[in-house]
Design brief:
Elements (H helix, E strand, L loop, with lengths): L5 H77 L2 E2 L2 E2 L1 H6 L10 H21 L4 H38 L1 H23 L7 H9 L3
Antiparallel strand pairs: 1-2
Helix pairs in contact: 1-3, 3-4, 3-5, 4-5
Length: 213
């Protein structure tokens, strides 16, 4: 057997297969790279999904906590409204019947009313900070309607229209309370009319103009 030509044959085989091996190597490297890229993309998507889920969970918990605090504020306001008292008259009726001329000094009712108005002011700020728009609208509807029914007309028809000047002369706090009441009352009427929760009327528009802020 003659092996003198084997070197040439080996070179020929090597020369013939080397390009294929090189191409195969390139293909394998490309497939490996593509596979790793797909895995990285899937990992990135999974991390994003987990991040978004955690964010939603956190936001949901924060929203629940925020709403819970607002509910407590509403309960507190309703409690203090029920606790209003003047001349043995209780609740919102005391706001309609209150007469500062029957006392040498301003009755504590005005202090209690001012505290309630400030609580409404804080409540509205808290509701405006709700992150979920739909939930925010529900609570703004509820808060403005509550102020409208419990405070606005009961105070407007008596304390504001009849006794505001006297109260502001007698008590420094009333100089702050009366404008704050007018400010929230204006916001209340504007909001409820815009939301069609109360009917627009020339009388209501005149009432809004009567509030001097």
């Amino acid at each position: 057997m003659d092996f003198t030509e084997t070197g040439q044959i080996g070179d020929t085989i090597a020369g013939t297969t080397s390009p294929f091996i090189a191409i195969l190597t390139i293909v394998l490297v490309y497939l490996t790279f593509t596979s790793q890229k797909e895995e990285l993309e899937k990992t990135r998507e999974l991390v994003e999904q987990q991040t978004n889920f955690m964010k939603e969970q956190t936001q949901g918990a924060e929203l629940s906590q925020h709403v819970g605090a607002i509910e407590e504020m509403i309960k507190e306001i309703l409690y203090f409204i029920d606790e209003l008292e003047w001349n043995k008259i209780e609740g919102v009726r005391s706001l309609r019947e209150f007469d500062p001329k029957r006392h040498d000094v301003v009755h504590t009712l005005t202090d209690e009313l001012y505290a309630i108005i400030l609580r409404f002011d804080a409540l509205l700020r808290s509701a405006n900070d709700i992150s979920n728009e739909n939930v925010q609208i529900v609570y703004l509807d509820r808060i403005f309607t509550l102020f409208y029914s419990k405070i606005l007309w009961n105070v407007k028809g008596n304390i504001y229209d009849r006794h505001a000047n006297l109260l502001m002369q007698r008590n420094d706090d009333c100089q702050l309370m009366i404008p704050k009441f007018a400010e929230i009352s204006n916001k209340t009427l504007e909001y409820l009319i815009e939301r069609n929760l109360v009917k627009k009327s020339s009388w209501k528009e005149g009432t809004m103009k009567s509030f001097k802020i």
